[in-house]
Design a protein that fits this description.
Number of helices: 8
Structural class: alpha+beta
Strand content: 25-35%
Oligomer: single chain
CATH superfamily of the largest domain: Gcn5-related N-acetyltransferase (GNAT)
Radius of gyration: 19 Å
CATH architecture of the largest domain: 3-Layer(aba) Sandwich
Distance between the termini: 39 Å
Shape: globular
Amino acid sequence: MSLSVEQLGSDHAEALRALLLKDPVHHLYLLGLLEEFGVQPRPGPAGCAFWGRFHAGTLASVLFVGGEGGLLVPGSQDAASAAAFAEALGGRLRVQACLGERPAVDALVRALCPRTPRLSRLQRLFSVSADDLGPFTNPTLRLARDEDLPRLLPLAVGAVREVLERDPLEEGAALFEARVRQRVRARRTYVLEEAGELVFKVDVGSRSQHGAELEGLYTLPTQRGKGHATLCLGQISRHLLSSLPRLTLRVDEQNASLAGIARKVGFVPGRPQRLVLMD
C-alpha cells in the first residue's frame, strides 16, 4: 500500500486541521502553531513547516519542524511514522528540542539524535474545560505591561531555570528580554502583584480557536505556600474558558505540587508526554 512523506502546503490545510481535530486536547499545541503560522512552509533558520505521512493518499500523521530542527512537535504518530519522518528528514535537521507524546518523541529522538540529550523530562498533559472548573476568582491577576519588565524578568528567568535547568541569560540576555517583551505585547503574560511586587506569572503559549496551552507558571520562592498558584491558575483558566473550549498544561511527572494544584483547579491528566532538549 502506498506510503509517502512530504512537506505540506496550503492545499493540505483542511486535511491537516481535520487530522488534528480528531484529538484536539493532545493536538492543541499543534493547532495553535497551525493558526499562528499557517500551513505554507517558511524556509530558513527561523522558518517552519508541517510535514505529513500519507497512507494510500490520506494524511495519517504529522510533524511540525521549526527552525530547521530547532523544535520538533509530532502529532498522531506511532513508531513507524517516526521512522518514516526520520528517514525523510534526518539529513536536513539539527534537532535542538522535541516536545509531544512520549512514544513519538522517544522514537524521533532515537532516530535523529546521535548525542545524549541535555535534558529528557517525562511530563503529563493536563486539560480542563469550563464544565470542570471551580469558581475561582482573584481580581488582582492582570495582564503584564511594558513597565513591568524590570520586575517580570526575574520571574521569567526563574521559571526557565527551574523547568529547563538552564540559565537563559547566559545564552543572550538581550534576546531573552526581547522574547519576554514580545509575549507581554502580545497580551500573553499575566501577573499577580502584591504590595508593589510581582509574585506570580503565567504565560499563554500556543493558542487557537480550539483552545490554549498555559506555560511558565512561576511563583517567587519567598511567596510559595500561600495559595497564589491555585488562585491564579483558577482565575486565568476561568477567564480564558469564557471564550475558548479547553486549556492544557504540561506538568513534569516529578512535580507533584503543580500536578496537585492543576487537579484542585479542575484539570485532568491525559497521556504521557516527553520534553527533550539537546545541547
